[in-house]
Amino acid sequence: MTISALGPELLHRAARTYDLVVHLPIEFPLPGPAKPISERFRELSDALLLRTLATAGIPFHIVTGTLESRIAALSARVEGLQSAF
To answer: Are 42 and 27 contacting, i.e. CB atoms less than 8 angstroms apart?
Structure first.
């Protein structure tokens, strides 16, 4: 398999194997003065991720809000998924 074929293969595998895909958009700045990546990189990678998921037709949920509300929303999604089985 070539490198160029790896991306589509990973997307196909994700579409068939993941039960839940959750996107946590950028809502908080990275802490501390020495950031491992720039805010611009975060924005670009966030946009690329959303485009890739949409293009591949992989359903995903966007969870926003405070850390506490994100945890609550994720817990509810996982519990709902578990009760479906």
So the answer is: no
